[in-house]
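User: Predict the complex with flavin-adenine dinucleotide.
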Amino acid sequence: MRTRGVTADILVVGLGPAGAAAAGAAAAGGARVVAIDARAAPGCPVQCAEFVPAALEADLPWLAEVTVQPIRQMRTFVEAAPPDITAGFPGCMIDRAAFDRYLADDAARAGARLLSRRRIGAIGADGTLVGTTGETFRARVVIGADGPRSLVGAATGRANTALVETRQLMVDLRSEQDATDIFLSAAYPGGYGWLFPKAGAANLGLGLAAGVRPRLKPLLAGLHARLAGQGTVGRAAWGLTGGAIPVGGRHPVAAWRGSIPMLLAGDALGLANPVTGAGIAAAVQSGRLVGAAAAAWVSGDRTALELLEEDMALLFDASLRRARGHRRALDGAAVDPDSLRAHWIADPRYWTEAATEHAA
Ligand SMILES: Cc1cc2nc3c(=O)[nH]c(=O)nc-3n(C[C@H](O)[C@H](O)[C@H](O)COP(=O)(O)OP(=O)(O)OC[C@H]3O[C@@H](n4cnc5c(N)ncnc54)[C@H](O)[C@@H]3O)c2cc1C
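Assistant: Here is the predicted structure with flavin-adenine dinucleotide placed in the model:
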């Protein structure tokens, strides 16, 4: 029996923000691009708290079209103390499903062929990818934009081993707010709680170091009960979601399988911020760079991948190193409120040079 096969110049695995951005950039660079995703539709189901910095509009001029409400400040609640207010914290609460769909539509408009319900199950020694239904995918370059548990990354020695696990609910918000609320506590090792407003509702979630995952459910229930008791949110909850976030930092962008370069972008590359878990902006930015470099490589530019590694280092490594340093400083330590505060982005000490020494 003949196996069904798909061929392309560039194969993109994953159609989240990184994959869609990569597919669009690669197609715009003139390559024949196929992008596949295990999901039936981009961005669904949503696994996200849906906050992006307002500055992302410089990359995505259509951001306002998928924005549900603006964010102007951050409130940081450390244990039971009144919140620290960070007034200048401009952002957007987005409709993440619409955001991902917009990026995927952009990629299709640029000429990429998008295939849904295709899950890659294995990668051969010669760089051929095999779908879980037996379909084969061959390309001159593969881009792994397949998220925190990337198969492309794992197959090429670049698995994300440090992960935060999350759990999130939707709740009614009793009064509208333009702040993201952050909850820091010694009870939340390796993570934090969040309440991100979306008009009359909110995403209420919690992330914890993967090793203490069983505590997620009771701790989030406790946070929900506390906020409901204060009258901030309703007692009803729906829209349960969650997922992993890589917190170990960046991998090398390229590795080889046979003669095929296997590039990574977004969470697969380890670009989510190790302290905040934010990864959407980095996924879009890295996806675009990787897609453009892959198209250049296919058209004969043999310097493209080296330059890509340099660009990634310039764009992401300083902030990732800083965040990893802060994360490490809290690792396993008995944490007091002042340390929790000092290692969170709202505190000026987070940004001082001394703090980055932890990252060495
Ligand atoms: C609960 C939660 C809340 C978050 N909140 C925020 C936030 O508010 N702001 C923020 O900036 N970041 C947030 N993040 C992080 C953010 O969601 C990620 O950084 C971002 O989605 C990374 O994009 P990506 O394209 O790299 O990966 P993903 O969005 O994970 O996309 C990967 C895609 O690859 C597909 N895929 C995976 N494996 C295969 C396979 N074998 N074959 C085919 N397809 C495959 C998946 O179906 C998926 O569509 C949050 C994460 C979680 C879990």
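Residues 13-19, 36-39, 47-52, 119-120, 145-147, 151, 166, 168, 205, 242-243, 245, 266-268, 272, 277-280, 283 surround flavin-adenine dinucleotide (CB under 6 Å).
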